[in-house]
Amino acid sequence: MTGRDRSVGSDQSDRFKRLRPSGGYRDLRSFQVATTIYDATVAFCDRFVDKRSRTHDQMVQAARSGRQNIAEGSRASATSSQTELRLVNVARASLDELLLDYEDFLRQRGKPQWGKDDAEARKVRAVGAKHRTVPSDRSDRSDSALYSPWFSSDDPAVVANAVICLIHQANYLLDRQTAALERGFVKEGGYSEQLAAARIAEREKARSDSSDARLPPCPLCGKPMVLRTARKGPRAGAQFLGCSGYPECRGTRPIDGSVRSVQSD
What we know:
Layout: H1 3-11, H2 29-48, H3 54-76, H4 81-108, H5 119-130, H6 148-151, H7 156-188, H8 191-214, E1 225-229, E2 239-243, E3 251-254, E4 260-261
Antiparallel strand pairs: 1-2, 2-3, 3-4
């Protein structure tokens, strides 16, 4: 992009403001953890799984799907809450599939799986609690180096168990993310509902602006007048111009232009 392009994009940014934000997936902790899982799985499979086997490809693809669907869901949030939720759930399912592959690897080789409260499992969890990927790092580098004491081990069981701990962390984060998305959908509606509401509000604003431009100011306080309909009294059902500052100001104008004080509205 040229300097001119950047200037135009900056000057016109307000014109292209989206109704709903999207992207920002690099700031999501779930995406950061999923990136580490993906990198660790690629290395694990290259070291300990036969490259000619289907398991090798399936594990790598499941790890990649977990990461990529978080990013894709974040991008889709601009136009579809349902698509975002679906893709986050796809990411969660992919990581569950990967979890089973690691557990199968340990079970089939007679290797122990760490319990939640094992000392090594706690150490792995502590790393994630202390460190966060810098969102401004656009290279998408993962936190793999932070887990090198486990990932670089010659014992595949140590590597597999460490990745399993990270998968549990990612799944927990995705569950929270899904719950937050569901709450937002219930409270604010989906994209179509928000778009319709925004369109109605814009039409009402345009109608109000158009009416205000033709209506005279209040004869008592000078505020804009609005079209009102009397609800009671001998003129019930008749329209008149009332001050927008009502009830503080009771100035009115009948449609014929004479001034009077409102008695009923």
